[in-house]
Amino acid sequence: MLRILLMCLALALVSGSGIVAAECPLVLEEPILITSVGQSIDALIIKTIFDDMGVRADFQPLFQADGVEHYGQIVISSGISYKGIAAAGTTLESEVERAKAIVEAAQAQSVPLILMYLGGFIQGDANSQQLLDILTPHVDVIIVYRDSRGPLDYFTNLAEEQRIPLFFLADMGNLCEEVTLIFSP
Fold first, then answer.
1. According to a count of CB atoms within 10 Å of the terminal CB, is the N or C end of the chain lower?
2. Which fold has domain 30-184?
3. Quick one: DSSP state of residue 150?
4. Cβ-based neighbour number of residue 174 at 10 Å
5. Dihedrals φ, ψ of 158, to 5°?
6. Angle between helices 42-53 and 175-182 (to 10 degrees)
7. Are 94 and 46 in contact, with CB atoms under 8 Å apart?
8. What is the reported pLDDT for 115?
9. How high is the pLDDT of residue 127?
């Protein structure tokens, strides 16, 4: 069912027509796993949004690939926070390997990956870009905060080339309502 909805969204986005969430909503398949690669705070923000929506979601900032099959979907945020990495007692190299393992396990178990990118890194940050390069070609949906200062052209071009549904969020102060328009719980 999700694949059909994703194809519908991809066709609508590629054709350039506007889309209303009610016409072709993404369905949240609970329980949802929320994790961050790079240990940015975005995953915690996403968890708060999903809690406000009444969605059953587990926040596991250091989630390893074991147990992917217990989730209906994985929502993953990406972005390097060197303070977050230090506080979590991990390393950049470990985060890169963890990202690869999550992608591999999700594909093996047919668990959809959703990339939510809220915060921005200054374009040219090679470490954050490395994490995006690992994740984005393998995700089923990309959701980006429009004013994230991140690589918007990268997301737009990749979504178009790989026919990945891409959604932009416009108002950081109204994220719960905007995310609700994308997902049908």
1. N
2. Rossmann fold (3.40.50)
3. S
4. 11
5. -65, -45
6. 70
7. no
8. 92
9. 83
